[in-house]
Write a structure and sequence with these properties.
about 425 residues; alpha+beta; Phosphatase 2c, domain 1; Jelly Rolls; 2 domains; six-stranded antiparallel β-sheet; five-stranded antiparallel β-sheet; 19 strands; elongated
Length: about 425
Amino acid sequence: MKVTFDARTDVGLARQFNEDSYLVDEDLGLYVIADGMGGSAGGEIASRMACDEIHRYIGDHYEVVQQFSSGHAEATKENVSEMLVSAVHGACAAIFTRARDERELTGMGTTAVVLLIAGEQIFVAHVGDSRLFLLRQDQFHQLTRDHSLVEELKKLGKISSKTEVKAKYRNAITRAVGIYETVQVDTLEVSPIPGDRFLLTTDGMHGTASTDDFLRLLRDVQSAEAADNLIRHANSRGGKDNITTILIDILETEPQSAELTQRKINTLKAVPLFKFLSFDELLRVISLIEERSFAANEIVFDEGEEGNALFVLLQGKVKVSKKDVDIATLGEGDHFGELSLIDRSARSATVTTLEPSLCLVMSRQRFYEIIREYSALSVKMLWCLARVCSVRLRETTDELGLARSIMAQVQLPGVDDVEDMFND
């Protein structure tokens, strides 16, 4: 993958000190922003420590990235994400310990957004209300979810806009690195395509701009000019906070990887279960879906075995059979096994590949993760799943009604008729 970047930080117009920090290491493919808070100079120290500790940890464990990038069988996406989480946890413990040992730094902490390039994949770790955005094909998307009081109230349906919250609480965050000895870290994986522009920014920037503002500032502009535009815009809106941005432009990716990424998105959009998801919600789902390859004439699952995953056929063809009778052939874009997301019922049929095939697989465990962590997304998926089940039930009811109708029209011979048949 070939990328270019530009980074800027500015104290703004209202603050005396800059408590934001950022770090870029092109060799590691590591980009970090942090927005500090607390104590006399505590915010500045916390944000700088977060960047440095995360940088150190990734450097010390970079063999995980190298193994994943080279396709090592034992290096998975989960390994890379876990490494990022551990890096943030290490920074959290270090900041907490220093704040405990130095009384004047009590209560210091920081947000953090960490972006790591590994092979053809981008991995993200996130805590707080700094954000990661993506500009793709003239559409601007927020990829991270704020850990803030405003966001929590929105999730609960208590408010629709942050203006409904008292001004002094609008910037209150519910998670931060270093306030406690450990912290819950959100992760995300994104498969980039050429032309993507990623934006990491603290709230001193994103708090001043709408989606239309970002499109105007970022679209069709070189990254250096775009980065300057962002700083100027935030200051033109009062510059009430420190402002930090990192822009990362994806210039080239491996062509096959880019094509596969686009195919995943297009295929999942057509699946009823994901029909009403927004782009960022779809990316969240894709990050939780496993790719699984099957050889020709390989059994995907057997009739009677416990179901535990939904399959979406990305490439290839399969046949569905019941009691050794072929009942359907499925091709690219078709899906099967969705009812196993609900319970552990036995599979009602056997699915076998007719040619080499590639499936996207969502396990029940991953489905439950979405339900637990992303309420709006889970409501959409559960509603769509209910609709799928409803359609299946109607089809089954119609088939059963037709069968009964046919049986009712069949005139079975009586006893006298049978005797006459034998006598003849």
